[in-house]
Amino acid sequence: MIQIQIINGPNLNLLGIREPETYGTESFEDYFYRLRKEFPNVSIHYFQSNHEGDIIDKLHEIGFEYDGIVLNAGAYTHYSYAIADAIKAIKTPVIEVHISDVYAREDFRKVSVTGENCKKIISGKGLDGYKMAIEELI
Ligand code: DQA
Predict the structure, then answer these.
(1) Which of 14, 20, 45, 136 is such that its CA lies 20 to 30 A from the CA of 29?
(2) CA 36 to centroid of ligand 1, rounded, Å
């Protein structure tokens, strides 16, 4: 079966509660339940961490085996050269997702250092961006 890993970075454990006007009112766990049902032939795994090193460890762990990675590195997107290097180091293609439209917000969000090494960046499509990323990867 096709193996896809979703990785969510810092503060994304608070989806549904955190700034709902920007990130919506649905928790990722509820969305993930629906998402899995939409891809019955894909094995979709979910990992969330608020820690940069844990995100890098997860990329290393599955990045030579899985078929695709959907990464929302949260604010690390904008400055983590360590995560950017990890994406470059692995074999599995990565698509970067942002729930909000990062290009329509503060200037610091318009820069994505991690996105440089990703196959594509999907921004501003809400939680649907994760589904779009999986469609693209499979
Ligand atoms: C985000 C956008 C980032 O700028 C922000 O730091 C996040 C979430 C998004 O999904 O829109 O934590 O990645």
Answers:
(1) 136
(2) 23
13-64 pLDDT, tens per residue?
999 999 999 999 999 999 999 999 999 999 999 999 999 999 999 999 999 9
Q: What is the CATH number of the domain that holds 13?
A: 3.40.50.9100
CA distances from 18 to 11, 14, 64, 77, 98 (A): 8, 5, 33, 18, 15
Residue 106 domain flag: no
**60 classed as catalytic:** no
Please tell me the distance between residue 71's alpha carbon and the centre of ligand 1 in angstroms: 11
Residue 131: give the domain boundaries: 2-99+127-137
- CB-defined site of ligand 1, < 6 Å: 11, 72, 74-75, 77, 98-100, 102, 109
